[in-house]
Amino acid sequence: MMASACANDSSKRRKLLGDNSPDASCLSGLPSGVLTHVANYLALPSRALFSAALTNQNAAASDERNTAIVGNEWTTLDFGDLEKDLAVKLSDGDISAVLQCIDAVNRVKKLKLTNCINITGVGLEPLRGSTIIEQIDLSLVGDHQSPWLSQEPPISREFVLSILDSIVEREGCSLRHVQYPYVWHRGVFISVRTEKDREFEQILRRYNEMLANQGASCLKCNVNLPPENGSWGCSYGSQNYTCYECLRHYCSRCTNDDHEEMLSYCSVCEKKLCVDCQKKKRCNCCESDFCVDCTDCTDFTDCSRCGAICKECIGKKCCACEDLFCEDCEDEIWTRCKSCEKALCSDCAEESHWPKCDECWDDFCDDCNEKKGIDAIRFCDDCDTSYCRRCRVHVNCQEDEGKKNCTECIQLTGPLLLEEVKKVRKENKEGRAENKRLKDTNEQMHDHINYLEKQLQHEMKKVQELEGEMKQNKKGEANNGFLESTQSESK
C-alpha cells in the first residue's frame, strides 16, 4: 500500500524535482565542484531536493558527488527552512527522496514537517526502524503557530503510526518527543470514537511505555519522571515533562527564581516549552500561558484592573475613558446602554449622567436616548423622576399622595397614552379583520365538507347498485348450471 501511494505521486515528484527537464539534464552534466558551490547557497532541505533532482536525471551519479552537494550537517531537518509556497507543494515522493538522499535513518535526529500539508506520511518510510532520531514534529505548522489548519490535511495514521511503531520497538530507540497533528487528536474531545482513534490511543500507550522504560528525571529537582499516576503522553497527543525546543525534562512543580513554572503549555502553539527556551505571558483572567513569540500574542492587552489578558477574555470597554476590563473584572462596569451595549466604568458613570429609568433601571446612552423620540427616558423637573416609555404609562410618580401624577408627568404621559390607544385600536382592527377572514374560511370549509359528503353518498349508491347486479349475475349463472346438469341426467 505504501509503495502504491508513493507511485501515485511519482509524476508530481518528477515535475517538482525537475525530471525530464532540459535544464536539469544540463546541470547533471556539470562538474561536482560547480554543483557543490551552487548548493552552498541553498537551505539544507533545498540542497537535498537539488541533489535528488540531479540523481533523478543521472542515476549513475556517484555517492561522493551526492555527499558533497548535501553536506554532512543533518542533525535537524526542518522543511520550514524552505519557502512556504514550495513546502506546501511537496509530495510523499519528494519527502521520501530527500530522506533517502541524506541517509536520514542514520543521520537525522530532529525532523519537522513544517508546511508539508499535502503529504499522507507514506514518504516517511525511509525512517523506518531509525535508532538515532530523537524528535518528530508532525504538526505541519511552524514554530509559534496554531496547529489548527483551515483545511484538513491528508496525513494518515495508517501510514505514519506503523513507522513510529517500528522506531519505538527497536532496541536502543532514541525517540524522546513526538508532536502529533491536531487532526489526529481532536477526536478525543467527542464521545464517539472511531477505530482510528483507538489505534492512536494504542500507539500513545506503547510510546509512553518506551519512555518510561528509558528512565528520566527532572533536571532541576532530580525527581523520577513520570511521577506516580503520571504519564509521558497526554490523551490529546501532547507530551508531558519535556521541552519541545531543548528536549530537557522538568516536573510540573519546579519553578525558577522568578517563581515561573519551568515547563508550561502554550495555548496557541499547543507545545510545552521551558522558561529558558521561551518566555511566556500569562492571562490574569483565564490563567492560560502563551509564548511571547506566538502570532496570537499580539492580541494581548491590559485589563485596567488585573493586568495582562488574552483576547478571549476581553469583556467590556468603557466608551468614555476606553479602559478595558476582563470578564472577571466586569463589576467595574457600572452602566450599560440597553440599546447599543456601550459601557461606562464606575468613574465615568458618575460624570456622564446617562438617563436611567427609576423603575426598571434600564440605561440608555445620550445618543440612543435622543434617537428614541417619545420612547426615550424622560426626566420630570417637578418630581425629579425618570421613566422609560414602558414604565411611565404604568407608574405614578406620587405614590404617597393617592397614587397620582404631578402636572409635568401627566403632560409627559399624555402623548404616550395616545400612542397606546392608537396601538390598541390598530390591534383591534387587525383582530376583527383576522376574525372575519377565519369566519369566511370556516364557511368555505363547511361548504366543501358538505360537497364531499354528497359525493360520498353518490358513490356509495353506485357501489350498492353494482353489488346488486353482481348478485343477480351469480344467481343466473347458478340456475344455468342447474338446468345443464338436469338435462344431462335425463339423457
How does this structure look, described?
The chain is an alpha+beta fold. The chain has helices at 2-8, 10-17, 22-28, 32-39, 44-57, 63-70, 84-87, 92-101, 104-107, 157-168, 182-185, 195-214, 346-352, 366-371, 389-392, 407-490, and strands at residues 76-78, 110-112, 135-137, 177-179, 216-217, 224-225, 263-265, 272-274, 280-282, 289-291, 301-303, 307-309, 314-317, 324-326, 333-336, 343-345, 378-380, 385-387. The strands form eight sheets. Strands 1-2-3-4 form a four-stranded parallel beta sheet, with no helix packed on it. Strand 15 (333-336) and strand 16 (343-345) form a beta hairpin. Helix 5 (44-57) packs across helix 8 (92-101). The longest helix is centred in the last third of the chain and has 84 residues, at 407-490. The protein is flat. The termini are far apart. 31% of the residues are buried. The model is unreliable at 1-22 (pLDDT under 50).
